[in-house]
Amino acid sequence: MDAERQKVKSFIDKYNGEKRALIAILQDIQGEFNYLPSESLRLVSEILGIPLIDIISVATFYRSFSLEPRGKHLVTVCLGTACHVRGGPKILEEFERKLNLKAGQTTLDKQFSLETVACLGCCAIGPVVVVDDDYHAQTTIRKVDSILKKYRAKEKKNEENRKN
Q1: Domain residues for 10?
Q2: Which pTM was predicted?
Q3: Number of domains in the chain
Q4: CA distances from 22 to 10, 92, 129 (A)
Q5: Are 116 and 92 in contact (CB under 8 A)?
Q6: Do residue 158 and residue 124 come from a single domain?
Q7: Is there a single domain that holds both residue 129 and residue 88?
Q8: Could you read off the pLDDT of 22-53 as tens digits, one per residue?
């Protein structure tokens, strides 16, 4: 049995194989692999006895799930009304330029994925960019470089710690 299957089975066991824990199981899989691998979804279907199409329906309904590999860092740019009028589209363009990709894509080195959202619900501090779980308030195009540098440095430090 390969490591991926073993890991997925451990997530299912964590919730005692209960069907009602499907979303929690998918969240654990997403957290482990940065996306929902098709083989993992098939295994969940098989073990929980839920049709695969129903699992895929849940996975595609929630934006937090991805069926494609994501980068280690998820950059989300708010384009809601308040953020839009304060420069959200220009900030998105700057991230696209700096990362050399379009919204909905992942960098070739798998470090960053860029997404947009209609509203993050924190209009008073807009425009807002969220990287992983960190909110960056009143973002400007001038701040994009420093935001990306912070996460690149974080990743470099993590790599150095793994080597030691």
Answers
A1: 3-61
A2: 0.77
A3: 2
A4: 13, 33, 29
A5: yes
A6: yes
A7: yes
A8: 999 999 999 899 899 999 999 999 999 999 99
